[in-house]
Design brief:
- It is a single chain.
- The protein is of the alpha/beta class.
- The protein has a domain of 129 residues: Rossmann fold.
- Helices cover 38% and strands 25% of the residues.
- The strands form two sheets. A six-stranded mixed beta sheet has the order 6-7-8-3-9-10, sandwiched between helices. Strands 2-1-4-5 form a four-stranded antiparallel beta sheet, with helices on one face.
- α6 links the parallel β7 and β8.
- It is globular, with a radius of gyration of 18 Å.
- The chain binds adenosine-5'-triphosphate.
- Adenosine-5'-triphosphate (ATP) binds next to α1.
- This is Amino acid/amide ABC transporter ATP-binding protein 1 (HAAT family).
């Protein structure tokens, strides 16, 4: 469904991503992990179209996406959230979903919006103002809802669980697990917490200094000496 070939990104003199090869099948749930600054968000930006790599290919559903603008990628089925929730603050929760839907689908479907509001337990807050009426967990849910409103085939989730306390994190994780069943979509999720990734994902890809250093089952990856070294601060620039 998604294929990245030899992706390279440079910011100034800094090689942020080097020769990244990665592929995902329909419906897979994959974790993207790595130390701070490893290039995880940059990779999301390459997939969603915010960053143009200096070389490499982005293929989604058999289509070369490298030159496609953001809205075309959204309409092809690439949805994403941002690390810091980015609702339109002056709009209500429902209006935020309508705007996202228009961007991603080109039309508004109130029945789908109701379905998303119910699924994310946001229906009681549908008329609430996104700026002042929402708790952090609800802002995170709205961030996921906006991505769902674009009807993605693949959802890129950037640290949606960060900042939530243990109970909130557990509840949100159940929601994410139910996402694939309910909407039949694949998920690529950036998350620092190893336990969360192990519970959520069938597969984990590890980035370190802009390179993929491991890709496999959570158990195999988190036992890999190179991954342990990278997580404990050792150099892994092979
Ligand atoms: N727009 C930019 N201009 C210059 N450098 C950037 C830019 N965006 C990111 N970087 C640098 O690229 C590197 C990778 O950043 P990125 O945000 O992709 O890492 P990350 O793995 O998502 O980190 P974190 O876990 O802290 O969110 C870092 O060194 C960062 O400082």
């Amino acid at each position: 469904m998604l294929q990245l070939d030899n992706i390279a990104v440079r910011f100034g003199g800094l090689n942020v991503l080097t020769d990244v090869n990665f592929a995902m099948e329909t419906g897979e749930v994959v974790g993207l992990v790595g130390p701070n600054g490893a290039g995880k968000t940059t990779l999301f930006n390459v997939i969603s179209g915010l960053v143009r790599p200096v070389s490499g290919r982005v293929v989604f559903d058999g289509r070369d996406m490298l030159r496609a603008p953001l809205y075309q990628r959204a309409r092809a089925g690439l949805g994403r959230t941002f690390q810091i929730p980015q609702p339109m603050h002056e709009l209500t929760v429902r209006e935020n979903l309508r705007v996202a839907q228009r961007f991603g689908r080109g039309r508004v479907d109130e029945a789908r919006i109701d379905e998303i509001l119910d699924f994310l337990k946001l229906r009681p807050k549908a008329q609430a103002d996104a700026a002042s009426g929402l708790a952090l967990s609800e802002l995170k849910a709205l961030e996921v809802g906006k991505a769902l409103a674009t009807e993605p085939k693949l959802l890129l989730l950037d640290e949606v669980l960060a900042g939530l306390e243990t109970h909130g994190k557990r509840l949100f994780m159940q929601t994410l697990l139910a996402l694939r069943e309910r909407f039949g979509i694949g998920i690529l999720i950036i998350e620092h917490d190893i336990e969360t990734i192990s519970n959520l994902c069938q597969r984990v890809c590890v980035l370190d200094f802009g390179k993929v250093i491991a890709d496999g089952t959570p158990q195999a990856v988190f036992e890999d000496p190179q991954v342990i070294k990278s997580y404990t601060g050792g150099a892994a620039h092979a």
